[in-house]
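Why does residue order matter? Because the sequence determines the fold. Keep that principle in mind as you read this record.
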Amino acid sequence: MPWVMQRLWTTSARPNAPSRGRSGAGAEDRDGARARTPMTTKAAEKSCWGAVVVAVVAGMIAASHLGKLPPSLPMLRAELGLDLVFGGWVVSVFGATGAALGLAAGSLADRIGHRRLTMIGLGLLAAGSAGGGLADAGVTLLASRFVEGFGFLSIAVAAPSLIATAVKRRDRRLALGIWSAYMPASITLVLLGAPALLSTAGWRGIWWALAGVSVLWIGVVALAAPAPRSADSRPPASLVHNVRLTIGQPGPWLLAVCFPLYTLQWMALMVWLPTFLVEERAMGLAAAAALSALVVAVNVPGNIVAGWLMRRGARHWILIAIGAAAMGASALGIFSPALSDGLRYGLCLAFSGLGGFLPAAVLSGAPVFSPSPDQLGTTNGLLMQGSNLGQFVGPPALAAVVTASGSWNSVAWLMCGAATAAVVLAGFVRVIENRLALARA
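Structure:
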């Protein structure tokens, strides 16, 4: 990271200017528009919100494959004879896949096309889910989850680029703010619907049903998603070229580090909130699940409001700072025994709702901070790599703090540390954003 900060302060007045040669050809703006291509010209005339809906639903389908496991785990462990440790590996393989392969998946999207990788991702989700539904041993299930994990990652890095192509520039930040709600929206639906589905179809029925939905949505994406840029006859850049350009700029790195500082906090609280409510506040399991689902759900309007604010001119760094500061301040009260339960729950809602500003700002920043439109998928891949790292580390980090200290109160300092670091990084994002604004002026 020191070299990144050095680059941040020494970058020229056009720090993210595209490189000479392939990436520099054509007239480009800093939001990823390429004026000379028919598709982008068409998008500049009218935003295709139907394509945005298709991409967001694809993300929600992918996230449902992630969210289907936690409520199914007790039934699944009993049937397959999995111990707690192996069950934990089955849960964490999604995060591990994203943390290891995010950048490679994003570069692949830029290489073969974002629509194509979205469809491939849906196919992998269908294959993995169908195979998992046939699993008769833990190893088979784990292998199927790895396939699903790469399918999820493929959609997470490719679908935002489809959205950026489908809308005109002035709507891009709002559209990507809506996209950032795909994860909490899907998790909320899964939490609310899983008990009834498990009682009627069992966990295998859920696996097969989601496989069928994924196959169906491949056809929808093929019909409704923006077509590749047919007028651009240049051969696609290599994976190494895209990665080299992306990691050589400080902007994508800053966003990629902000993201895990958010997901570490948010995922840790969402995973352990039901346990906290049951064990520390003596609440019933059903009530704890319902209250936790509401906390997840309020993240969605936070994402959308942030997108609207950015469409009205709010800067990315401001929303990152507001979201991070709100999460840190809320965490101090959530784990404070001096406050009433009602007030502490209200702070949980503020934590998730205002915290939703941060992922919306980060994800909508990808077209702005990407070295060029040709590296948009690679930039999204770097962001997802950071996001998955936070998801992978957050829940065990919270558990380790509680175990070591013997008290949930100590968790506040873990949250505040991550939030403070994100606020500091927002200041560096401000420097880059100001320079980009001057370059466009």
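The two ends are 30 Å apart (CA to CA).
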